[in-house]
Amino acid sequence: MKIVTYNINGIRSSTSKGLLEWIESEDADVVCIQEVRAREEVARGILHDEIASEQFSFFEEKKDVVLEKYFKIYNCGNVAGYAGTMVLSKKKPNDVVFGIDGEEDVEGRCMTLFFDNLAIVNCYVPNGGTRLDFKLEYFKKLTNHLHKLARKTRLIFCSDANIAHTELDLSHPKECASRTGFLPVERNLMTKLLNGNFCDVVRIVFKDQKAYTWRSYRSLGVGGGYGYKYRFDYVLVDKETATKIQNCAIFDLPFSDHMPVVATLDLNF
Fold this sequence. Notes:
Blueprint: E1 2-7, H1 11-16, H2 19-26, E2 30-34, H3 40-46, E3 71-75, E4 85-89, E5 95-98, E6 110-114, E7 118-124, H4 132-150, E8 154-160, H5 184-195, E9 198-200, H6 201-206, E10 214-215, E11 229-230, E12 233-238, H7 239-242, E13 245-250, E14 261-265
Parallel strand pairs: 1-2, 7-8
Antiparallel strand pairs: 1-14, 2-4, 3-4, 5-6, 6-7, 8-12, 9-12, 10-11, 13-14
């Protein structure tokens, strides 16, 4: 099974730069997308996907659409040009739940897809720059959601978590010690999530190597060598599923200020 997590920083901009062609060529089984930054009807229009009258009508096969091999699940929220998530899946989910614990997901930040013996959670955690308390509370609720799921089924969590966990996950740890994204309180929350029987696929594969998944747009034209770089993007799995990890890669692509994380696991899908 190949799974991708990717903050595309706007579906309009990223697709104009070739994102869809990369997704087609990568041929992953599941692509978890964060920061769609568009209404659902806009995202559907870009993918040539008909606007459905019911949330689950996307399960029906459609013709003459972009990325035809995928079922497309949208959670774009109600705030135009802000946040939003999507999932592309070769396999039809048995069920999809939007948001966390039944709360209305106005910003379209989280979706949980249920398959036969696997749950996949795609989540865009708030940045926290001007809403740190909101971010911290959101992450606590998210952690509880993931722990509950992991007690019932295999679990893969894909996310732009907006937290660099350790000094291996950013380029300037000392300079960023008091900045949102690397605050001790944020890092402690990530530690608590991982200590609750989850494993960080990037860290398992990369071990003690530095790894980054975000850099400033100012870095894109100069090989990513300018400015601060962080690893905000994660694929986490439960400990049983961690034994199935085969590979993980981070690709420095021009479609977004984030980089996609691509994980391969020895799982039937």
